[in-house]
């Protein structure tokens, strides 16, 4: 079974600054994917970024990037130039290679961006 | 294209009652999963269905059941509701085999009183 751990229940950052959210996971699988999802108060779970485990290059999506350390089983999310709209709950999630929509989530980090 | 749609958005039930939640996946997606998200926690996997067959089940009691229809829509049923079943129930759809990400609906907020 897989486990995902997010050790920061809450974080805050000033607008325009950079913040990093931490995530570690445990698995015996070789083929898997990692995701960061954002859940604003509207409840809609929105994909922020994904990383294929077989790729060494860290994924980047505009202001969002990850630091994927496969050996350490670490998958942190860096948000640059933080915006007020980034305020949300962020979840790290694990998906076994071909398991479709079956995800294992962490407990989440509540990020607040302050003006 | 429509995203994942769930109905109803909110409902209130009494302990001991039964409830059915519905989910329509994105067109072309054949895998549907259900999650329970208790306030302040991460979503917990309940079921996954693919091609109308159960492909996975989380650690939930037999009071929880689900099914998938030929059009790939799905229903989650919960019998003998308990106060602890109060949660946001999320449905996610995706392709199966290959990748990739799961797309979520806005959820159904169930309150058991």
Question: Main sheet of chain A?
Answer: 6 strands, mixed
Summarize model confidence as the mean pLDDT of chain B.
93
Greatest interface by residues involved: A-B, 26 and 32 residues
Shape of chain A: globular
Question: SSE string of chain B, helix = H, strand = E?
Answer: EEEEEEEEEEE
- The span between the termini of chain B is 37 Å
| Radius of gyration of chain B, whole Å | 13 Å
- Counting DSSP H or I runs of 4 or more residues, the number of helices of chain B is 0
Q: Residue share in helices of chain B?
A: under 10%
Quaternary organization: heterodimer
Give the distance, in angstroms, between the N- and C-terminal Cα atoms of chain A: 41 Å
Largest sheet of chain B: 7 strands, mixed
Q: Based on DSSP secondary structure assignment, what is the total number of beta strands of chain A?
A: 12
- Beta percentage of chain B is over 45%
pLDDT < 50 stretches of chain B? none
Cα radius of gyration of chain A in angstroms: 14 Å
Write the layout of secondary structure elements.
The complex is a heterodimer of chains A (115) and B (113).
Chain A: E1 3-5, E2 10-14, E3 19-21, E4 24-26, E5 32-39, E6 46-52, E7 60-61, E8 64-69, E9 74-79, E10 88-96, E11 104-105, E12 109-114
Parallel strand pairs in A: 2-12
Antiparallel strand pairs in A: 1-4, 3-9, 5-6, 5-10, 7-8, 8-9, 10-11, 10-12
Chain B: E1 5-7, E2 10-13, E3 19-24, E4 31-37, E5 44-50, E6 53-57, E7 64-68, E8 74-78, E9 87-94, E10 103-104, E11 108-112
Parallel strand pairs in B: 2-11
Antiparallel strand pairs in B: 1-3, 3-8, 4-5, 4-9, 5-6, 7-8, 9-10, 9-11
Please describe what this structure looks like.
In chain A, 0% of the residues lie in helices and 52% in strands. Chain A contains no helices and twelve strands. In chain A, the strands form three sheets. In chain A, strands 2, 5, 6, 10, 11 and 12 form a six-stranded mixed β-sheet that branches. Chain A starts with a strand and ends with a strand. In chain B, 0% of the residues lie in helices and 50% in strands. Chain B has strands at residues 5-7, 10-13, 19-24, 31-37, 44-50, 53-57, 64-68, 74-78, 87-94, 103-104, 108-112. In chain B, the strands form two sheets. In chain B, strands 2, 4, 5, 6, 9, 10 and 11 form a seven-stranded mixed β-sheet that branches. A four-stranded antiparallel β-sheet of chain B has the order 1-3-8-7, with no helix packed on it. The model of chain B has no long low-confidence stretch (mean pLDDT 93). Chain A binds chain B through residues 4, 6, 33, 35, 37, 42-47, 50, 52, 91, 95, 98-108, and chain B through 31-33, 35, 40-45, 48, 50, 55-56, 88, 90, 92-104, 106-107, 109.
């Amino acid at each position: 079974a897989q486990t995902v751990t997010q050790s920061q229940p809450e974080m805050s950052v000033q607008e325009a600054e950079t913040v990093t959210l931490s995530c570690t996971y445990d698995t015996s699988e070789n083929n898997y994917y990692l995701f960061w999802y954002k859940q604003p108060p509207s409840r809609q779970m929105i994909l922020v970024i994904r990383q294929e485990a077989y790729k060494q290059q860290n994924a980047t999506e505009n202001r969002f990037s990850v630091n994927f350390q496969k050996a350490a089983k670490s998958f942190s999310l860096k948000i640059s130039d933080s915006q007020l709209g980034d305020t949300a709950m962020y979840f790290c999630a694990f998906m076994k290679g071909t398991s479709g929509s079956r995800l294992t989530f962490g407990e989440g980090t509540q990020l607040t961006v302050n003006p | 294209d429509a995203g994942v749609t769930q109905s109803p958005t909110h409902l209130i039930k009494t302990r001991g009652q039964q409830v059915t939640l519905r989910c329509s996946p994105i067109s072309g997606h054949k895998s549907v999963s259900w999650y329970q998200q208790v306030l302040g926690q991460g979503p917990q996997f309940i079921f996954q269905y693919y091609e109308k067959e159960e492909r996975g089940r989380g650690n939930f009691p037999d009071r929880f059941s689900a099914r998938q229809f030929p059009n790939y829509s799905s229903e989650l049923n919960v019998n003998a509701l308990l106060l602890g079943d109060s949660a946001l129930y999320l449905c996610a759809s995706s392709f199966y085999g290959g990748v990739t990400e799961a797309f979520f609906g806005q959820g159904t907020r169930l309150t058991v009183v």
